[in-house]
Amino acid sequence: NSLRFNRGSEDYIDRTPSSAGNQKKFTFSTWVKRSTVGEGSGPEEFIMYGRPGSNTDTRLYFTGDGNANDDRLYFQSTTDNTTHTALQTNRKFRDTSAWYHIVISANTEDGNGSSSTIKMFINGVQETSFATETYGVQNKLFYWTDDCLTTLGRRSENNGQHFHGYIAETVLIDGQALDADSFGEFDEDSPGIWKPKSVSGLTFGTNGFYLEFKQSGTSQNSSGMGADTSGNDNHYATGGLAAVDQSIDTCTNNFATLNPLDVTRLSNVGNTFTEGNLVVTDGSSNYLVANGSIAVEAGKWYFEVKMLESTDTHIASGVMVVNLDADDKTDGAANGDHGWLYATNGQKRNAGSSSNYGDTYTQNDIIGVALDMDNKAIYFSKNGTFQASGDPTSGASKTNAAYTNLAGTITAQVYDGQGSEAHEFS
Question: Bridge partners of 186?
Fold first, then answer.
C-alpha cells in the first residue's frame, strides 16, 4: 500500500531510535506521487527529515515557497549551522499522475568529498545535473540513522512544510551505500518503465527499516501503518493519519486521480484539491471543471465519482467523460461534441443537446462510469444500478448505452456548470 499525506491535516510518521547507527554510510529509497506542484502552490514539501538539534539536520524535500526554484528535489545535511552536503536538481518534478522513485546513497566513511560520495537516483537513473552541488568530505555525519527524531512526511519543527501526496515502498539501509538497482529494475517488456523489486535479500542495519504500509492501525507496533517489516521492528508512530489514508494507489498499481493542473474553465478561483487529489471542492461563486489524470484510447474501463456536497440539480453539472483532443475548456465540454455528461438533474447532454436519461442524483450518491472504448460506448450507473437498463457487458450490441459516439482520447471529468452553486466531488 501507500500512505496518503494531506497537508491540511498535517500528516506524518516519526520515530526516535534508542541508539545511533552508522551516520556516515546509508541508503534511502522511497516512491512518491505528488499532489501539489507549481510556483505559488505552497511551502517546501519534506519527504524525510532527521534533526538531533538546532541547526543540525539531514533533509530531503521538494522546494517551494512560490518562486522559480519550486519543485526541485533537494537533499541537504547540516552540522552546527554549516552545510556539508547539498544536492539540488536542475530539473523540476511536476507530474501529479506519476510515481517517482528516489534513492539517496551516501558514504563519507570511505568518500573523499567527490561526486562518488553522495549519489541521487531518480527512476533508476543517477542524477548528474544540479543547481546546487556540494559533497561532504570524509567522515561528515548524516542524521537519518542517528538516535534522534526522524520524520517521514514533514519537517518536525515546522508544521507548514508537510508533504502532500502518496508515499510507498520506503527503505532505509543503515551502514551500506547501494545503487538504485538494489530496489528497482527496468521492465523487461517495456524497458522505459522503472519498477520496484523485492528487497527481501537486503541487510537493513541497526536503524534500517522497510515500510510497506501493509497495516491500518495507528499504534507504533507491527499492526500500525508505520510498521517496519524488515525484521528490525523499527516501527514508526503516526500523526494525523487514519485508516482511510492507507491507499492501494502505489508504484505498482497507479490509479487515476483528479488533475489539479487541468482545471481551467472561466474562473477556477476557490477550487481546492484534497485527499491526494481524490476530492475537489468549488465555492458558491465560481464554476468548476476538473479532469482525470489518466486518459485512454482503447480497452474497457470503469471509474466512480461520489458527490460529497451539492446545492442543486442542474442541466450542466455532474459527471462526464471528455475528449482531451478537442476540449479547449472555454465552455462546458457537453455544450460541444467533445463531452458526454450524466447531469445531476437526471438528463444526459452532448453537443449542446439534453434529453431524459436516468435518475437525479445529489449528495452521497455514487455515479459509476463504464467506458467501452473498443465499441465507443459509455454507460452510467447510480449507486450500483446502470441507468436506462444499460448493459456495459453487451459489447458490440451496445445495449442501452448512454452514448455510442465516443471519439478521441478520453478522461474523466467532474463539472459544475452552475456558477452560483457549490459542489464537492470525490
Answer: 194
